[in-house]
Design a protein that fits this description.
8-stranded antiparallel barrel, 2 helices, alpha+beta
Length: about 180
């Protein structure tokens, strides 16, 4: 009887895992198949003035020029979901590729203007972390604009109490290509 109960629990757990995977896979396929194609253009990374010394700020790249593409969809709750890939010039003038999923809860401000706030889960590669091996991150994201074009921002919090890391606000634009 105990073995049968254990077997039933294991099967239920396996079904839950499969449904989580299947649900995520279906969501990604839906965004890729039905989503609108967008161009992502980055250009500015603000480093916190209380985190970095003046000398260090002079060495850092705040012109985080970059380019990427996204597939964006509005879900049944009229919130925005996107899958994206982007490469920018990081704080040390090195290429920083990243790819991920973002979700934003959208709030209309007027007939055409809206704001959004949410989170992004991504894989990111930086020359100064893990020898460039991609690593996962979860960051906040926000936007203001229309359904077709938005000024967007993501924030990398300070990683530790030591000065000189994190506390970076990345600004970029999303332009609908459809």
């Amino acid at each position: 009887m105990a073995l049968s109960s254990f077997s039933g629990t294991a099967q239920a757990q396996q079904k839950e895992d499969e449904s989580w995977w299947d649900s995520g896979k279906a969501k990604a396929e839906n965004i890729l198949d039905k989503g609108d194609l967008s161009l992502l253009l980055s250009g500015y990374a603000h480093h916190g003035r209380n985190t970095y010394t003046r000398e260090r700020l002079a060495e850092l790249n705040e012109r985080a020029w970059g380019l990427g593409f996204a597939k964006t969809i509005r879900n049944e709750k009229d919130n925005e979901e996107l899958l994206y890939a982007m490469i920018i010039s990081d704080s040390h003038f090195k290429p920083q590729p990243m790819a991920g999923y973002a979700y934003q809860w959208m709030k209309p401000l007027s007939e055409k203007l809206e704001v959004g706030v949410g989170a992004t889960a991504l894989l990111i590669s930086r020359a100064d972390y893990f020898s460039g091996v991609p690593f996962p991150a979860v960051l906040p994201i926000a936007s203001i604009g229309t359904r077709k074009s938005k000024l967007m921002a993501s924030y990398v919090p300070r990683i530790s109490q030591n000065k000189g890391n994190g506390d970076v606000l990345l600004l970029f634009v999303r332009l609908d290509l459809n």
